[in-house]
């Protein structure tokens, strides 16, 4: 197993912590939703908006952030993102009404969009081959672990302090990352290319309008102009955004990237796998409190086995995939997670975590450990270093859009109420999404021929 050089180790550490706060805030909120709703008012619609306001700006602006990272330098963009994320986190914690909270969450997502592509681009800029695969495996273990450990941390703060402290978790890691960045002397060559701000606006407004329609549709119905008009306008704006990406000069999301086989098919797999993860995370965190009657801390502890397995296995799996190729891992992992989702169908009115939820969490953790590092490494390894920032941004945008859409459709999926029947419906949809992700990987993913040749020579 290749060892990291000191500079590489520093880069990996910075990338992990910078991304950690973004992933953490995407999931830590799930377990706090019942407490937020009780304190500030609002039902499932408000809960959806608290999650999706963050995801809308994170998803829409992460593409713009990828362009900024390539144009002006990864470290510079990351530093701005860290400072803005800290300020917006304090604003979320201080919110006194749902509207202020939702606006602050949107600002937090915008700041987070600057962090993920620049952090992964740091890794891809200084590492290649098996070392890069291992680095991404380590990054994946901790950042995906943040997605899973978030509910536990959130539950502890909700039960013993306040939901507001959930959003102040970020302050210390942000300060540490800024300090580490001051020690990183990485040669950067900002290209100074023109950034397409107009396309960024089209993407953000288009996605936001469509998501508004999906979330509010159960309340107002599709016949209401307040629903169908934003849906139509939003879809048109997003289509305009895609048309602008066909231009040969400085597109925000170069569509030519999708002609690279592993990048294109890998992102399709990403869409299904991360939609399933987002749906599962939201539904399990909320139902275990509102349906099964667990405390916020207990609901957060429910997913701890997934975190432990991710930390133990992801780095190893990243190295294995670097040697053996990613296709098998990216196929078996999602199919295993589909089985884990189906195990949640055993949840009944007579609730038992140990027999009804724990087996699912173990199987999900194994499947997730097999999937995420090979998926990320395959997608980013398919693209040259000069486009690493935008490639990372596109992949992360797709994963966030997947979560954004599935949470917006939550009321439709669960039938309007997250009761036991709704929980079972969500488990079935989750399983189908995971399974499709596995099938897509088997059909489309192939081993990088350059890496295969290098491995054959060893």
Fold and architecture overview:
- The structure is a single chain.
- 79% of the residues lie in helices and 0% in strands.
- By secondary structure, the chain is an all-alpha fold.
- It has two domains: 6-184 and 250-457, Growth Hormone, Chain: A (Up-down Bundle); 197-249, no CATH class.
- Helix 10 (261-290) packs antiparallel against helix 15 and helix 13 runs antiparallel to helix 18 (420-444).
- The model is unreliable at 452-458 (pLDDT under 50).
Which terms would index this structure?
globular; 2 domains; single chain; 458 residues; Growth Hormone, Chain: A; disordered C terminus; mainly alpha
Q: What integer is the average pLDDT? A: 79
Task: Name the CATH homologous superfamily of the largest domain.
Answer: MFS general substrate transporter like domains
| Uncertain stretches of 5 or more adjacent residues | 452-458
Output the helix-strand order.
HHHHHHHHHHHHHHHHHHH
Q: Using the CA coordinates, give the radius of gyration.
A: 21 Å
Q: Helical amount among residues, as a percent range?
A: over 70%
CATH architecture of the largest domain: Up-down Bundle
The biggest beta sheet reads: none
| Total count of strands | 0
- In quaternary terms, these chains amount to single chain
CATH class of the largest domain: Mainly Alpha
């Amino acid at each position: 197993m290749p060892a990291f050089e000191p500079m590489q180790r520093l880069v990996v550490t910075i990338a992990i912590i910078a991304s950690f706060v973004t992933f953490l805030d995407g999931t830590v909120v799930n377990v706090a939703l019942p407490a937020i709703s009780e304190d500030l008012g609002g039902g499932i619609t408000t809960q959806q908006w608290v999650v999706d306001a963050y995801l809308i700006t994170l998803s829409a602006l992460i593409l713009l952030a990828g362009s900024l990272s390539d144009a002006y330098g990864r470290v510079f963009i990351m530093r701005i993102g860290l400072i803005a994320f800290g300020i917006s986190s304090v604003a979320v914690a201080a919110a006194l009404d749902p509207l202020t909270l939702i606006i602050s969450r949107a600002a937090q997502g915008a700041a987070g969009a600057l962090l993920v592509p620049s952090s992964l681009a740091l890794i891809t800029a200084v590492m290649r081959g098996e070392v890069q695969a291992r680095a991404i495996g380590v990054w994946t273990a901790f950042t995906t672990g943040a997605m899973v450990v978030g509910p536990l941390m959130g539950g502890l703060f909700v039960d013993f302090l306040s939901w507001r402290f959930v959003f102040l978790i970020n302050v210390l890691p942000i300060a540490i990352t800024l300090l580490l960045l001051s020690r990183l002397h990485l040669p950067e060559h900002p290209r100074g290319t023109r950034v397409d701000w107009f396309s960024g606006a089209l993407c953000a407004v288009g996605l936001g309008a469509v998501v508004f329609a999906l979330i509010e549709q159960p309340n107002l119905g599709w016949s209401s102009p307040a629903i169908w008009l934003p849906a139509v306008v939003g879809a048109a704006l997003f289509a305009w955004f895609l048309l602008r990406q066909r231009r040969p000069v400085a597109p925000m999301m170069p569509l030519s990237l999708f002609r690279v086989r592993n990048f294109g098919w890998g992102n399709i797999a990403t869409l299904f796998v991360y939609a399933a993860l987002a749906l599962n995370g939201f539904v399990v965190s909320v139902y275990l409190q509102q349906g099964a009657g667990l405390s916020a801390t207990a609901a957060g502890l429910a997913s701890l086995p997934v975190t432990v397995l991710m930390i133990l296995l992801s780095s190893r799996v990243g190295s294995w995939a670097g040697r053996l190729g990613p296709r098998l891992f990216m196929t078996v992992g999602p199919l295993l997670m589909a089985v884990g989702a189906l195990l949640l169908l055993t949840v009944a009115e007579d609730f038992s975590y140990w027999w009804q939820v724990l087996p699912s969490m173990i199987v999900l953790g194994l499947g997730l450990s097999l999937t995420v590092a090979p998926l990320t490494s395959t997608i980013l390894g398919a693209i040259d270093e000069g486009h690493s920032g935008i490639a990372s941004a596109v992949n992360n945008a797709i994963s966030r859009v997947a979560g954004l859409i599935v949470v917006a459709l939550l009321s439709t999926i669960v039938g309007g109420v997250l009761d036991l029947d709704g929980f079972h419906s969500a488990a079935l949809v989750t399983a189908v999404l995971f399974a499709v992700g596995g099938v897509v990987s088997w059909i489309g993913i192939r081993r990088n021929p350059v890496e295969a040749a290098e491995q054959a020579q060893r």
